[in-house]
Amino acid sequence: MHFFTGRDVTERKLAEARLHHLAHYDQLTGLPNRTSLREDLQLLLDSDRRDRGHPVALAMFDLDGFKDVNDTLGHSIGDALLELVAARMLERISGNARFYRLGGDEFVLTVPQCGDPREAAQFVTAVLERLGDIFEIKGHQLFIGASAGIAIAPSETVSVDELIANADLALYEAKAAGGRDYRLFLPVMRAKAQARRELDSELRRACARGEFLLYFQPQVRIADGSVVGGEALLRWHHPTRGILSPGAFIEALIASPVALEVGRWVLRSACEAAAVWRAKGLPPLRIGVNLFPAQFQGGRLFDDIETALQSSGLPPDALEIEITENIALAQDEESLEPLRKLRDAGVQLAFDDFGTGYASLSYLARFPLTRIKIDQSFVRKIGSKPTREDTAIIRSIIIMAHNLGLEVIAEGVETAAQAGFLEAERCEEAQGFLYSKPLPIAEFERFVTSRAASLDAAPTRTGSAG
After folding, report:
1. In terms of domains, do 217 and 328 share one?
2. Are residues 311 and 411 in the same domain?
3. Mapping DSSP to helix (H, G, I), strand (E, B) and coil, where does residue 140 land?
4. Is the pTM above the cut of 0.85?
5. CB 60 within 8 A of CB 168
6. DSSP state of 317
7. CATH code of residue 47
8. Which of 46-60, 197-211, 336-350, 450-464 has the lowest mean pLDDT?
């Protein structure tokens, strides 16, 4: 009887130990998990409150590029990578420092009795450097790197949740700055995060209440000054701040869940406006529409554009879709198929802000482009007496585009000297304040009408500035 009782007790204790291990440790890497982190942090913070002088530093790590590994090589490679990451992290700690895995590709380092940001940064830097080394897994050579955010329990008022949130905010700043580095938490980061949350809420409300509207900037043929197109530009009619330009909200909107809905509204509204102008007898114009990254996801891009064209009655060749280099660099061969179908259907495709990113000649060959837009940062350098250095990039872009059979439009043209230079270099079109600022729809109509009338009345061309 005693034998069986002893065996029962032993088995129960072993089962309890297994359950405790499952509850407190990550099964893949063997590191303590989120539950352990919270319990350990609470003990450390309680110790600091009792004894003072026992602060704790916390660093949150996030792997850069881990999702790409999972998506392209599979989860088995991803799991093997996480195991190696954990092993490398453990190589770089000493003393009472401890690593945890929160889940996914998030890890946390705690350093007890560390109130010096420089000391915490030394730990973090050593880990980041080690994670930057090549990983070799089943014949694959992987480079990932990581980003980190550091927070230090500053006083008896900080809680476990606040300390973790502070490190997370610092991590967000590190990734926003380009990654593969760390940032130390500063109180201003919390204020910025609150502002981001409030802006996101306002954008959702703006979408629901129809507070967005379109302005249009004329696109002009340099040779004769005639308006050949218009770029649809988003504006926000804020209830208290008035008309806001994209610089005040576009980054937040791109990351917002309503980005897809707003993008579809822009597309539909721009096509409808261009169709109305044709019905009114305005010169047939090309309408340019910028796409959001969200519109490339979900496989609905071709259908959305086809629907906008059919419902508005706008001919496909009157629509020009504009994509930035950053969007283009994120596309794979499969996601390029809708663009090829659109081009086959007659829709035009422009590469916006060309020269500001990392797109190479190979990208121009891959995409079914019709036009390249020279970024205004290059045009701005053209003064009354431009140097060879100021004009080299523009010349190169124009020559490269023409060799590929593409037309060129320059953005941000503000002076007659800039327009003259562009015309001499055989740039076909321009847009900018020299011709017109972005205009509300009614003012754009009047501008196009008066421009056409003045050109019809002029017996000869008077200059490239228009």
Report:
1. yes
2. yes
3. strand
4. no
5. yes
6. G
7. 3.30.70.270
8. 450-464
- The CA distances from residue 421 to 94, 379, 407, 428, in Å, are 63, 10, 16, 12
Q: Count of domains in the chain?
A: 2
Quickly tell me which residue has 């004009």 as its tokens.
Answer: 391
State what percent of residues in the chain have pLDDT above 70: 89
Nearest to 78 by CA among 66, 89, 86, 90: 66
* pLDDT, tens digit (0-9, with 9 covering 90-100), for 7-39: 666 777 777 777 777 889 999 999 999 999 999
Residue 191 lies in a domain: no
Residue whose structure tokens are 């306002």: 202
Together in a domain, 307 and 262: yes
Same domain, 214 and 176: no
Q: Helices 259-279 and 441-457, interaxial angle, to 10°? A: 40
What are phi and psi for residue 173, nearest 5 degrees? -65, -40
Q: What is the DSSP string of 243-277?
A: EE-GGGTHHHHHHSTTHHHHHHHHHHHHHHHHHHH
- CA atoms of 185 and 172, how far apart (whole Å): 10
**Residue 345: strand pairing partners:** none
Inter-CA distances, 217 with 406, 423, 455, Å = 22, 20, 19
How far does the chain reach from its first CA to its final CA, in angstroms?
105
Please give the helix or strand (H or E) that residue 440 lies within, else none: strand 439-440
Please say which residue of 185, 214, 249 terminates a domain.
185
- Where residue 411 falls among pLDDT bands split at 50, 70, 90? very high
Does 252 score more than 60 pLDDT? yes
CA-based nearest residue to 234, from 225, 223, 245: 245
d(CA 314, CA 278): 9
Residue whose structure tokens are 């990734």:
175
Residue 463 has pLDDT above 50, yes or no: no
Residue 61's domain spans which residues?
Answer: 21-185
Task: Judge contact between 172 and 188, C-beta under 8 A.
Answer: no
pLDDT digit string, tens, across residues 192-231 = 889 889 999 999 999 999 999 999 999 999 999 999 999 9
Using the 3D structure, point to which of 152, 185, 218 is the last residue of a domain.
185
- The position carrying tokens 């249009």 is 216
15 domain-assigned = no
Asked if residue 179 and residue 212 are part of one domain, the reply reads: no
Contacts of 304 (CB under 8 A, 6+ apart): 264, 267, 295
Residues 270 and 368 in one domain: yes
Q: Are 213 and 346 part of one and the same domain?
A: yes
Residues 181 and 217 in one domain: no
Amino acid identity, position 236: W
CA distance 313 to 279: 10
H-helix or E-strand spanning residue 102: strand 98-103
